[in-house]
Design brief:
The protein has seven helices and 14 strands. The protein has 297 residues and is of the alpha+beta class.
């Protein structure tokens, strides 16, 4: 049974590669023999024309791949393997991938931290036969959950890193803080970073408020270590579950109440806008609704 057509956009990194090479990167679970049969049967097109396997393509061109149940299985295989390895993949291309980091998992390893996000993703890439090194373009605290962007190889990491340097990435968080905050606000201060004082800025909007607590949607404009936690604690509204910065830690809350709810940017390789909205984890939603006495939006 046929399914919808799959669209594969040729990235700048893939310019000049053959159609077969590009298709193999897009469907890593498929063997080359299977992919060559797709070309022979005329199931791969570009600009409306049947495409040959050895055709060289330019950045921005689109491959249209006739869908099938077998193809759907092959496309889903890497994501299923990633989820089995504890690395839920939200999006992947030839240059980058976005994964859903759970709370409690560090992004990087350390002397006493052998299990970490980068290690899991690198193991997954190695199992798939991909030789490049992956690296995170930004970080989330170990206790924070949400989407993390990683680059594939040095060149891709450089391009993606420039998005953050130019502040071209939208990062939104959900945090439950102690006390009743203002409906909206801006926080700006100097925080120590690498031996220097650096500007830290964020804005917030209260989604729910009571005398006990406020659920905030936070627009992070800079990315200093523990910035949200430190700035809100300094403002008299520490996060729930944040013992380090004086927040209340009730037994019913198993973790820090901080979740990255949105990561959005324009893919520098394809020009496509990418938006990743991550719902509040169930354990945080249940706790907030119980404390605030109302369902969350």
């Amino acid at each position: 049974m046929e399914t919808c057509t799959e669209i594969i956009v040729v990235s700048t990194r893939q310019q000049g590669q053959s159609a077969l090479e590009i298709l193999a990167a897009a469907v890593p679970a498929a063997g080359r023999g299977y992919l060559r049969q797709l070309f022979k049967k005329g199931r791969v097109r570009c600009d409306g024309q049947v495409l040959a396997a050895d055709a060289l393509l330019q950045a921005g061109q689109q491959l249209q791949l006739a869908g099938s149940a077998r193809l759907a299985e092959l496309l889903a295989a890497p994501r299923q393997a990633a989820e089995a390895a504890g690395v839920p993949v939200l999006y992947e291309s030839a240059e980058l991938l976005v994964v859903d980091k759970p709370a409690g998992l560090a992004v990087h390893g350390g002397a006493e931290q052998t299990d970490h996000l980068v290690g899991r993703v690198q193991t997954l890439m190695t199992q798939r036969g991909e030789r490049f090194a992956v690296a995170p373009i930004h970080r989330l605290d170990r206790a924070t959950s949400g989407p993390v962007l990683l680059g594939k190889g040095r060149k891709a990491c450089g391009e993606l890193g420039r998005l953050f340097l130019r502040q071209q990435v939208e990062k939104c968080y959900l945090a439950l803080v102690q006390g009743r905050t203002a409906p909206t606000g801006e926080l700006a201060s100097l925080l120590p970073a690498k031996g220097k004082l650096k500007e830290a800025r964020c804005g917030f909007q209260a989604l729910r408020r009571s005398e006990q607590a406020s659920l905030l949607q936070i627009d992070l404009q800079t990315g200093r270590q523990h910035q949200i936690r430190r700035q809100l604690a300094a403002a008299g509204h520490p996060l729930f579950g944040d013992a380090r910065y004086g927040g209340p830690c009730p037994p019913a809350l198993p973790r820090l109440f901080l979740h990255c709810s949105r990561l959005a940017f324009v893919d520098p390789f394809s020009g496509a806008p990418l938006i990743f909205d991550s719902p509040l984890p169930a354990e945080l939603r249940v706790f907030a609704e119980t404390l605030l006495g109302a369902p969350l939006p």
